[in-house]
Amino acid sequence: MVLLLLTGAAILRISLFSELYLRYVQAGLRPYLVVSGALLVLLAVAAAVVGRPEEEPHAEQGQHTEHDEHAGRDQQREHDEHDECGDDSNAYDQHGGHHSPRVAWLLTLPALALLLFPPPALGSYSAEREAAQRAAQGVGHFPALPAGNPVELTLAEFSSRAIYDSGRSLAGRTVRLTGFVTRDDDGTWYVTRLLVACCAADATTSKVEVRGGEAPPVDSWVTVTGTWRPRGALGTDAAWPPVVDAGVVRRVGEPADPYETR
Question: Does the structure show a pLDDT above 90 at 174?
Answer without folding.
Answer: yes
